[in-house]
Write a structure and sequence with these properties.
Blueprint lengths: L2 H13 L14 E2 L2 E2 L1 E2 L12 H15 L3 H4 L11 H9 L6 E3 L3 H12 L8 E5 L4 H13 L4 H4 E4 L10 H11 L3 E7 L11 H10 L3 E5 L11 H4 L3 E4 L14 E4 L45 H17 L1 H25 L5 E2 L12 E4 L4 H10 L2 E2 L1 E3 L3 E4 L8 H16 L1
Parallel strand pairs: 3-13, 5-6, 5-7, 7-8, 8-9
Antiparallel strand pairs: 1-2, 4-10, 9-10, 11-12, 12-15, 14-15
Helix pairs in contact: 1-12, 1-14, 2-11, 5-6, 8-9, 12-14
Length: about 425
């Protein structure tokens, strides 16, 4: 497809886009009096225009009611976190009882490993993808050391083959099988932050369970991006942030999924009063009695202001519908792939695409690798009003998202890259 045809197809797709009006529900950043083209929903999603109203509701109730807002606010703060399971369940493929919003991502990752990484002298290894996100690496390393093991021996990383950019599924599954009864935990990013590769979480979970390991995922780049069926896949646990595709503001509140089969198990857990049985919580007695859902993993009362921003965004998701969002994401992906394929023909050897073509192996993000000159390309895009994302070494990450990006923005990015590469 030549670039003129790409532009024409993008215009036609925008004309018949059933989600087109949702763009107007978001603030688009303006630089030098002109709206930017924003492609970094994988790093920080844009702000819904309703977010200040949701925040103002909480602050008004705080001003009006003080402490009584816990009981008499429009959405009482005592139970504010209970808003989220019905909104998140369609995004995660979870039961409502399996999801709770709390804390921050790496805090939750540590809390999940308290319960789900229980090493023994024989079964002590954690398997992860090579080049996992740095905070995940640090969490795994510190958990391994906490239990008295050497990270060099206990953490097994699976890398792409020589000369390839993504991990083959068969290599990942074979590595799980090879570790066998030494493997305590499989812990992967559902979508790798660097390459944008979407892993087959269902198959990974099945094979992990076959060898007796528990299986969890960091869904920072997957939640709100790709189809998930965590309950049916029998994933043991997952955690995610809300500030990327979930558009809930910088440092936004995190969430966890814990499969129902673990709710009444004897797994160890760090306890806090907000996980205590609700009807007795304010008796303040000794001896922890857990809520019989994922809420038992809560430690502290809800950060309501941060949650209000999350509430605003998830209400937008509910109106848009995940089926329509996934359908548009796939169309945007195909358009991006077609455009970059044409650019590779026009500019051979200038760049490679790390992200798989198949929609079963990718989400919104496309990672474009430059062996040289990539930083200059990134800078020139930014100067032209195209906000992308740079990751060392050599990758420009581009993630148009279906809620607020237009198809023409995908075509415009390809056209701008053509201009930069031509010069």
């Amino acid at each position: 497809m030549n670039l003129t045809a790409l532009q024409e197809q993008a215009i036609q797709l925008d004309e018949f886009d059933p989600l087109a009006d949702f763009r107007e529900q978001f603030h688009i950043p303006v630089i030098n009096g002109k709206e930017v083209r924003y492609y970094t929903g994988n790093s920080l999603g844009l702000m819904p225009k309703t977010t200040p109203d949701y925040l103002m509701e909480v602050t008004n109730d705080w001003a009006r009611l003080g402490v009584e807002g816990h009981f008499y606010a429009k959405h009482p703060w005592l139970s504010y976190h209970e808003i989220f399971p019905p909104l998140l369940a369609p995004l995660l493929g979870s039961l409502e009882s399996e999801t709770v919003v709390m804390n921050q991502l790496t805090v939750n990752l540590h809390l999940m490993m308290v319960s789900f990484y229980r090493p023994t002298a024989k079964r002590f290894k954690i398997l992860c993808e090579g080049r996992a996100f740095s905070s995940d690496q640090y969490a795994m390393e510190s958990q391994v050391r906490f239990h008295g093991f050497d990270p060099e021996k206990a953490i097994v990383e699976v890398f792409p083959r020589e000369g390839e950019s993504v991990i083959r599924k068969e290599d990942l599954l074979e590595s799980i099988r090879q570790q066998g009864d030494t493997l305590a935990l499989v812990l992967l990013g559902g979508v790798n932050f660097y390459t944008g590769q979407l892993f087959d979480m269902q198959e990974i979970t099945r094979v992990g369970h076959e060898v007796g390991a528990l299986v969890g995922f960091d869904l920072a780049h997957a939640a709100g991006n790709v189809p998930l069926e965590l309950h049916d896949w029998e994933v043991d646990f997952a955690t995610w942030c809300s500030y990327k595709y979930l558009n809930s503001g910088p440092g936004g509140v995190s969430g966890v999924f814990i499969h129902k089969k673990h709710h009444l198990s004897d797994l160890p857990r760090f306890n806090g009063w907000w996980g205590y049985r609700k009807e007795d919580r304010f008796q303040m007695g000794k001896g922890f009695i857990p809520i019989e859902t994922a809420e038992a993993w809560q430690l502290s009362n809800a950060p309501v202001l941060s949650m209000a921003a999350h509430h605003a965004s998830l209400d937008v998701f509910q109106r848009a519908g995940m089926e329509r969002l996934h359908a548009k994401r796939e169309q945007m992906t195909y358009l991006m792939i077609d455009g970059l394929t044409e650019l590779k023909r026009l500019h051979p050897g200038k760049f490679e695409v790390f992200t798989p073509d198949s929609t079963q192996e990718r989400g919104c993000q496309t990672s474009i690798y430059f062996s040289s000159g990539g930083r200059s390309v990134f800078n020139e895009l930014e100067q032209a009003g195209f906000i992308t994302d740079w990751r060392e070494p050599g990758v420009v990450r581009v993630a148009p998202v279906p809620l607020y990006n237009r198809f023409k923005e995908v075509a415009d990015l390809v056209t701008q890259l053509d201009s930069i590469l031509s010069s």
